[in-house]
Structures are given as C-alpha cells and as structure tokens.
Amino acid sequence: MALACSRRENRHAARPLNAITHIYDGGAPPAHDGRLRRNTALGLTLHTGASIWWALFYERLFGTAARRSTAWAAGGASAIAGAAYVVDYFVVGRRFRPGFESFLSARSMFAVYAALATGFAAASLISRTPPRARH
Q1: What is the Cα Rg of the chain in Å?
Q2: pLDDT for position 134
Q3: pLDDT beneath 50: ranges in the chain
Q4: Which of 10, 73, 94, 101 is the most buried (most CB within 10 A)?
Q5: pLDDT computed for residue 128 by the predictor
Q6: Contact in structure between 29 and 99 (CB atoms under 8 Å)
Q7: What is d(CA 28, CA 20) in angstroms, rounded to the nearest whole number?
Q8: What is the pTM of this model?
Q9: What is the pLDDT of residue 31?
Q10: If residue 117 lies in a helix (H) or strand (E), which one and from where to where?
Q11: Rounded Cα–Cα distance for residues 73 and 90 (Å)
C-alpha cells in the first residue's frame, strides 16, 4: 500500500521504503534508492521485520478468536494496527519512526495502516478451519 500510494503521490514507489533506512543510518529519511538500490532493500527488510513483529502480537492476542469470528478478526486487526501507529509515531523516538510521513499524505498513511489491519484479518479468515473439519 505504501508503494502504491507513493507511486501516485510522488511518481516514485520506493520512497517510503527508502525512508525507513534512516533507522539504521541516522539522519533524515532519504528519498533515493541508494547505490545498487541498497536503501530500498534495507527498507524492505526493516519494514517486513516490523510487520512480522506486529503480526506476532496479533496472533498471540487475537489469533484463535479471530479464526472463529470475523468480528474478532476485524477488531483485533484494527487494534494491533492502531497500536502499531501509536508506537511508530508517538512512543518511539524520531530515529525509530518509519519515515513514511516524509513522503506520504495523511490519507495515504491511514491507507498503509488500514492495509496492515486488512492483512492480519485476511490471514485469520483464510486460515479458518471449516466447521465440519473441526469435529
């Protein structure tokens, strides 16, 4: 979602991923891909790691209930994505913020965290055990 929004807003899809490298390198979030697309690869790695980190919280707190109920899946996913946003932008120091905000509008930022929630909920709903198979 970040790539699609950035492509639309900046005509350059990788800027949000490139921005994440400031966590590793320090300084302002960079827009450029870096030598041999280093910033894009490092940003993708950091972003994937953070997404998995939040997915672990989602699974631990809501996983079983979310696989049984669409409401639990949606509610739990929204809660974890909301917590991720709060931690990313209000708890951690500036250096550890993703940097997406440097290249994405508020509307796109909402879309990014909504997509995170959608991914969590979808994973639960897809992995449901059919009612007949549970018995």
Answers
A1: 16
A2: 54
A3: none
A4: 73
A5: 84
A6: yes
A7: 10
A8: 0.90
A9: 87
A10: helix 106-126
A11: 25
